[in-house]
Amino acid sequence: MERMIQPPLVDSTCLCRVDAGLIVGAKRYVPGSKLCLQPDIKPSIHPTRCKPSRGDRTRNQSPLLPGLPDDLAIACLIRVPRAEHRKLRLVCKRWYRLLASNFYYSLRRSIGITEEWIYAIKRDREKRISWHSFDPANPAWQPLPPVPQEYSQALGFGSAVLSGCHLYLFGGKDPLKGPMRRVIYYSARTNKWHRAPDMHRRRHFFGSCVINNRLYVAGGENEGPNRALRSAEFYDPNKNKWFLISDMSMVMIPLVGVVYDGRWYLKGLSSHRQVVSQMYQPETDTWHPVDNGMVSGWRSPSTSLNGTLYTLDCKDGCKLRVYDGATDSWNQVIDSKTHLGNSRALEAAAIIQLNGKLCIIRNNMSITLVDVSRSEDDAKNCTAEHLWETIAGKGQFKTMVTNLWSSIAGRNRLKSHIIHCQVLQV
């Protein structure tokens, strides 16, 4: 991956075009699976200098794999694990263009071999940002090159994933320039950072979510006497544009948010520092204050999986609660029976979805997978029957012991803590 201080502008037509030399007649794709239509090319009536045709250029190129037609070569290359893609890009230009194309990853998706990796964004004591990736097939955290300069020390910015493979960073507050409208994204396909259109409003410490592959942001703070915001907007990657939507029913600085049953729930502080909640309905573009059992019992990061809403029930994330829509209450508990402690190092920073399971990530970078699918077979015995699997990357056990000793000695200040976790499909 190249270190890019100023990420390049995003291509407004197609992010990735299939090169003519990869495979003749291949379709061209853009993010969101919209076809990138090419205009018909009419022959010129004026005599011009002869140029080799596309077919001639294709026939003159060396094969992707010696001794094999290109279609069979591609069938082999799409089966190479994601961890080796960096090496494949270095082989030749044709291999680089193939691995950077949407065509390559659409084929991987069509035969069901896409891989899900975890990307964690951390902040250290000096407020510097770093990020790491985790491959479940080779369980070890890998440090990544620095994020672009504008986000190296930003505060209160958002993070989301669109189209499965694009990690977006947006908004936030630069220590010198103040609140930002900037939007950038990392593509797991090209392994590079790109620019996207700026938001309409400058904001930091706001709420964000993804619904139907659209990125929504709302509330937060700006500068000036009326710092708290009511405005909201969304980004459509197919149109590469931001659109304003209805303002929130009240100003809010969101603290937690979740998408459940097609609606976006937010809970945070009002301009008078009172706890308030709101719900957004995309189909009607309306906001509504909410005060039901789901919101009142919701205090931690949450996620929904297969239509069920889960939230953390203890600091170390070793106990989960399940929301029951029929009774409007959190009346079911899933307990690992093995609790780690209450230190900041062991505090659960995020709960996300990974390969059909719940994934709990802690500040010390330890990961626990919870197989909640077994609850459907025997809900009454779910506290004892659920499968909890702890994944420890290289050096994580040493880190855990160090943090525990620091807690015992009264030095509970972390070297770094996780602020965002996302899953990218590649």
SS-derived structural category: mainly beta
How many domain units?
Answer: 3
Q: What's the β-strand tally?
A: 28
- Residue stretches low in confidence (pLDDT < 50, at least 5 long) are 1-48, 393-397
Shape assignment: globular
Radius of gyration based on Cα positions: 24 Å
State the major sheet. Answer: 4 strands, antiparallel
Strand order of the largest sheet: 5-4-3-28
- Proportion of residues in β-strands: 35-45%
Structure characterization notes:
A hairpin with a 2-residue loop joins strand 24 and strand 25 (357-362). A 4-stranded antiparallel sheet has the order 5-4-3-28, with no helix packed on it. The protein has a 4-stranded antiparallel sheet with strand order 6-7-10-11, with no helix packed on it. With 426 residues, the chain is mainly beta. It has helices at residues 54-60, 70-77, 85-89, 93-99, 102-110, 293-296, 382-385, 396-408, and strands at residues 29-30, 34-35, 116-124, 129-135, 138-143, 158-162, 166-170, 173-174, 178-179, 183-187, 192-196, 207-211, 214-218, 232-236, 241-245, 253-260, 263-269, 275-281, 286-289, 302-305, 308-312, 319-324, 329-335, 348-354, 357-362, 367-371, 387-391, 416-425. It folds into 3 domains: 70-111, no CATH class; 115-141 and 296-425, no CATH class; 145-291, 6 Propeller (Neuraminidase), CATH 2.120.10.80. Residues 66-101 form the F-box domain. Keywords: Kelch repeat, Repeat.
